[in-house]
Specification:
heterodimer, A: about 110 residues, mainly beta, six-stranded mixed beta sheet, three-stranded antiparallel beta sheet, B: about 120 residues, seven-stranded mixed beta sheet, 11 strands, about 0% helix, about 50% strand
């Protein structure tokens, strides 16, 4: 089944570390396709946060990091700031769809 | 700087058609793969369709296949989405997004620039 599964929500206090998982299958992440992450602040367009599993575009703080293993990927955010409160999406390619696939999104709340 | 500006959204009755446009500037539009991505109110992102730099390759999500058509006019630096037989479930903000790849490599693609989106509401 062509689905990327993310937890609907995560939360953490300022300064803490949180992780967001993205679980796929053999037709997407498990097939070796890269995972990319996007941050969407309220009322704005998504912004590229991590590309190629673990690479940060210029301007993205080092607090954000990504990894991929097997059929899953993770986004880690350390030293949480109030401004990190947003929705986060993973994205990969799916060979059975012949197209891109997004995870359902995770809402991060900074307590 | 790279800019993507969508237009053409609005309220349309079920079964009717609408065409969205995305005006690109600040980069060599004709060399990039481009996508449409949508987001229903309060929901997550859904990839809709992709077109290669020269328009020769196109893929669609199953949810819009046979109803939506992506196209581009490289002479006008503009991407289009023709939406026919619209349904209530097509109600969403539609974003155009630039693929980072300039060659047709859909399995490597991701989105480095996004427009601000245009809202399409399908309602009677």
């Amino acid at each position: 089944q062509s689905v990327l599964t993310q937890p609907p929500s995560v939360s953490g206090a300022p300064g803490q570390r949180v992780t967001i998982s993205c679980t796929g299958s053999s037709s997407n992440i498990g097939a070796g396709y890269d995972v990319h992450w996007y941050q969407q602040l309220p009322g704005t367009a998504p912004k590229l946060l991590i590309y190629g599993n673990s690479n940060r575009p210029s301007g993205v703080p080092v607090r954000f990091s990504g990894s991929r293993s097997g059929t899953s990927a993770s986004l880690a955010i350390t030293g949480l700031l109030a401004e990190d409160e947003a929705d986060y999406y993973c994205q990969s390619y799916d060979s059975s769809l012949s197209g891109s696939l997004f995870g359902g999104g995770t809402k991060l709340t900074v307590l | 700087q790279v800019q993507l500006v969508e237009s053409g959204g609005g309220v349309v009755q079920p079964g009717r058609s609408l065409r969205l446009s995305c005006a690109a500037s600040g980069f060599a539009f004709s060399t990039y793969t481009m996508h449409w991505v949508r987001q229903a109110p309060g929901k997550g992102l859904e990839w809709v369709t992709v077109i290669s730099h020269d328009g020769s390759n196109k893929y669609y999500a199953d949810s819009v296949k046979g109803r939506f058509t992506i196209s581009r006019d490289n002479s006008k630096n503009t991407l289009y989405l023709q939406m026919n037989s619209l349904r209530a479930e097509d109600t969403a903000v539609y974003y155009c997004a630039r693929d980072v790849t300039e060659q047709w490599l859909p399995h490597l693609g991701y989105f480095d620039y996004w427009g601000q989106g245009t809202l399409v509401t399908v309602s009677s």
